[in-house]
Amino acid sequence: MSDDKERTVELHYEGGVLKLPVFTGTEGESTIELKTLLGSTGMTTLDPGFGNTASCSSKITYIDGAAGILRYRGYPIEDLAVHSTFLETAYLVIYGELPEPGRLKEFSDKLRDNADIPAEMGAFIDAMPRNGHPMALMAGAVNTLAAYYEDSADPEDEDQVELATIRLMAKLPTIAARIYRNSIGETPIDPDDSLDYVDNFIRMTFGDKAPSGELGDLFNKAVGMLLVLHADHELNCSTATVRVVGSAKADIFASVASGINALSGPSHGGANQAVLEMLEEIRDSGISIEDFLEKVKAREMRLMGFGHRVYKNFDPRSKEIKVLASQILDQHDSPDELFALALKLEAAALQDSYFTERKLYPNVDFYTGVIYRTMGFPTNMFTVLFALGRLPGWIAHYREQLHDPAFRIARPRQHYVGSNERRYPGQG
Ligand code: ACO
Question: Cα–Cα distance between 165 and 168 in angstroms, integer?
């Protein structure tokens, strides 16, 4: 942010004129600073869903929704998706630069060394309801990390925050895989420090049933790419949640657990599950695509996987995912019926003025679920995979906030429209 105090806008109100500074971001975006508004005018702003409100300055991710641009630390998502690995991208998102090979190895080794979870924690996860939604179980498990690792729960201590970063990155796949194994009644599999991050997660999840050979390589590539594509997305609902909780100086484990809870909602991370359920419903009910879209247009339902608060053009991640989906499905003997249905649904929606006029395009979730399903992940694990991908972003935002000189506890105002003062019955 360049602090361009010479640029101002004037707010004319009943009591006078207030000059407000305008900041220019590195991509030329203008942001009006409202810090003095309440004190000078007695007025607040009303911005439901924070659609026009920047709550912080950030150097992590740049999005231009109209142009379909997404960059982590300046690097276009298209390059990272194809040329980077999840660990390299995670390092970039968290620490700000692509790692030298030695640094990447060091990072990877630390994650291997910390992938185990304490036996008591394993028992705690095993005692949770086995058919509960894995996002609820994962949030619960992550919340308890602060209790198991009190030596890395102090946000004021940089070394502790760094140690917690490694622990979170290292243990989340182990936690996720254990929850999955429990849900299918199989014995949990311990991490294997001879495997890379993604392979280890796939093995802890599927065990001997994990595909090998060419298909195994494609699986690894696909999971890795999907994690890269989800690694950060600036101030989305879950990341904003992590920041809000962290702003109270809650530890990073509690903050990330809150992010997982926010992500579980069907308007956010739960959308990839909702897309699959929608496709299955269309298939099972036998409704035509045209009739289904009529129901959407009549507001009886939403077309899940379409639309985005920020992208008013193709979500750049959805393009990469569509290519990946075709590659994976090509490897299978029989074409996937839900993928075929998704292709038809997308084509029909993109020709319909209801969607084009509202700039509703496929988002990252439209094809993600189809890919995960083909890999053998059950529908309720899709959002868990999203959380594994988003973890570096949550961590990076939590850490960035700790060093922000403008850091304050998050405390929005409200526009009160309730009752005026009234007397309690019998009190005059
Ligand atoms: N299907 C049908 N109509 C839609 C959809 C949709 N998926 N999304 C938006 N619209 C319509 C709205 O009804 C509204 O129409 P109107 O102006 O006639 O009232 C208009 O488009 C604008 O919609 P908003 O709700 O204002 O858009 P908003 O930015 O608040 O919502 C959201 C974004 C929540 C993602 C929405 O598009 C949606 O619900 N999509 C489906 C769920 C989904 O795929 N979520 C994943 C998001 S990506 C992610 O979290 C990784």
Answer: 5
Mutate to test the pocket of ligand 1, among 358, 383, 386 (most ligand atoms within 8 A of CB): 358
Q: How far apart are CA 226 and CA 80, in angstroms?
A: 11
**From 308, 330, 332, 352, the catalytic residue:** 308
- Model's pTM, two decimal places? 0.90
Q: Active site residue: 232, 251, 365, 397, which one?
A: 365
Using DSSP bridges, classify how beta strands 75-76 and 69-72 pair: parallel, antiparallel or unpaired: antiparallel
Q: Is 297 in the pocket of ligand 1 (CB under 6 A)?
A: no
State which ligand 1 atom lies nearest to the alpha carbon of 366.
Answer: 44
Contact 61, 393 (CB under 8 A): yes
- Dihedral pair phi/psi, residue 270, rounded to 5°: -70, -5
Closest CA to 115 of 182, 208, 177, 183: 177
Q: What is the pLDDT along the chain (428 residues), one digit of tens a residue?
A: 445 558 999 999 999 999 999 999 999 999 999 999 999 999 999 999 999 999 999 999 999 988 889 999 999 999 999 999 999 999 999 999 999 999 999 999 999 999 999 999 999 999 999 999 999 999 999 999 999 999 999 999 999 999 999 999 999 999 999 999 999 999 999 999 999 999 999 999 999 999 888 888 888 999 999 999 999 999 999 999 999 999 999 999 999 999 999 999 988 888 888 899 999 999 999 999 999 999 999 999 999 999 988 888 888 888 888 888 778 777 766 567 888 899 899 999 999 999 999 999 998 888 888 888 888 899 889 999 999 999 999 999 999 999 999 999 999 999 999 999 999 999 97
Question: Burial letters for 71-90: b for 16+ Cβ neighbours within 10 Å, e otherwise?
Answer: bbbebebeebbeebbbbbbb
d(CA 254, CA 398): 11
Q: Among 167, 178, 168, 171, which Cα is nearest to 205's?
A: 178
